[in-house]
Design goal:
about 450 residues, mainly alpha, two-stranded antiparallel ribbon, 19 helices, 2 strands, globular, disordered C terminus
Length: about 450
């Protein structure tokens, strides 16, 4: 193994284990950020020592992502920041202490914006580091992601007892793995399934004598059943719904190139039957209070997300086109939340990535997102057309993972988890060409 690969593997493993606590558990995330800086330095030295090049598209993508929050931290004269929409209450409050005429940054809460920049460093470093690896080396990242996902599944079995592996003091008898949030756990299990299936396919394609589709599909059925039970026992309603999309995607990813015909179609149908029957049998055998709690969540008659979305849209209109600043959702929502929906719960997230991103970045966030989509789309099409070894399988895995996360982002905030953001950064790296071929082309 090239010595430039090991730091990337360690960073991914550390991110999936330490990056799931969120704001209530800052110490593991702080350790992850410091560790990411050390690992990035070791990786850079290894890259220079071996004469390897970094991925320019990944560096451009990271620069685009960081540009907005960094600009939001630049102090502005009073004549500029006073004219920004939504700053009236801030001006009035600062006037009481005679500080309204001081230079202030674009962000309404610069300390939170700075924290947002720091929390984005592990996934951005992962993007650059992973995209700078060769295709065969990137396959190791997929294998590792699937391995950690499966380990978290078995850790969750202990958590179901209520007295083992309760890393964040949740006290919930559900599967959380290394995360504090059930939705993030579901996402990691689903993306881990896609990674595991892709790893199996790449392993099979690298063999001299390939295995036929039937044994691979049966193995995919077993993995799908395990992950399906695990996702169900997280209690994540969105995760359970998304599993219905993940299983067909896993079957498509596992399908060997050139395989087809009636036998293959019959095999796929049998796999679906095995998963459905296996899931039903597993949940029936484990019918207990944990299963009942999950089912009860679907019958909940009071859903607060629509109220959050309504208040967030109001805050977006009040701060357009500049936005309030990265990481400022909580203080902005204190002012925007309607009195009739105020309760003891803190509105810490919009439970919709698109709305929260629009609030924090305004029209400039939309522009940055458009630039990133165009950048990745151009290189994805080029890589697909090149049909290099391992390329199409990895691209298919990444696109399937992005589809799942994009759908989940409508009702939750997967990118706000450092673990999930780093895993998605790996998937983004799979869409980009290896630097060796970039220089040659």
């Amino acid at each position: 193994m090239d010595r430039a690969v090991l730091p990337v593997l360690v960073l991914l493993a550390a991110s999936l284990v330490l990056g799931g606590g969120g704001s209530p558990s800052p110490l593991p995330e702080l350790l992850l950020q410091l560790g990411a800086a050390v690992l990035a330095f070791a990786w850079y030295r290894a890259m220079v020592g071996t004469g390897r090049a970094m991925s320019r598209p990944a560096l451009i993508a990271a620069a685009i992502f960081l540009a907005l929050p960094l600009l939001q931290l630049v102090p502005l004269p009073p004549s500029l920041w006073h004219s920004m929409p939504g700053r009236g209450p801030e001006i009035e409050a600062l006037s009481l202490i005679g500080a309204a005429d001081r230079w202030r940054p674009w962000s309404m809460a610069p300390d939170r914006t700075l924290a947002g920049v720091l929390s984005s460093l592990p996934p951005l470093l992962m993007l650059v580091m992973a995209a700078s690896l060769r295709r065969r080396e990137r396959a190791l990242l997929l294998a590792l992601a699937s391995a950690v996902a499966l380990v978290s599944l078995f850790v969750g079995v202990g958590q179901m007892r209520g007295d083992l592996f309760d890393f964040y003091g949740s006290g919930n008898q559900v599967i959380l793995g290394f995360q504090a949030n059930r939705n993030t756990t579901a996402d990691i299990l689903l993306v881990g399934l896609l990674a595991a299936v892709t790893s199996l396919r790449l392993w099979n394609e690298g063999r001299g004598e390939r295995i036929g589709p039937a044994p691979l599909l049966v193995l995919v059925a077993v993995l799908s059943m395990l992950v399906g039970v695990g996702v169900f026992m997280t209690g994540s309603r969105a995760g359970i719904a998304l599993f219905a999309l993940t299983m067909p995607a896993a079957l498509a990813l596992a399908w060997p190139r050139g395989a087809g015909g009636r036998k293959a179609a019959l095999g796929a149908a049998m796999v679906g039957a095995i998963v459905v029957v296996g899931l039903g049998a597993s949940l029936t055998l484990s019918a207990n209070q944990s299963v009942t709690r999950v089912v009860t969540r679907f019958a909940a008659d009071h859903e607060t997300r629509p109220d959050l979305w309504r208040d967030t849209r109001y805050a977006i209109d009040a701060t357009m086109p500049f936005g309030s600043g990265v990481g400022t959702f909580v203080p902005v929502m204190f002012a925007a939340e309607r009195l009739e929906v105020v309760d003891t719960k803190l509105p810490n997230r919009a439970h919709n990535e698109y709305l929260e991103y629009a609030l924090e970045g305004g029209a400039f966030a939309a522009l940055a997102a458009l630039l990133l989509v165009v950048l990745f789309a151009v290189f994805t099409v080029r890589e697909w057309r090149s049909d290099a070894p391992f390329a199409r399988a990895q691209i298919s895995c990444a696109l399937a993972a992005f589809t799942l996360v994009a759908l989940h982002s409508m009702v939750d905030y997967p990118f706000r988890s450092m673990s999930m953001a780093t895993l998605i950064a790996v998937m983004a790296a799979l869409l980009l060409p290896p630097p060796e071929r970039s220089r040659a082309g």
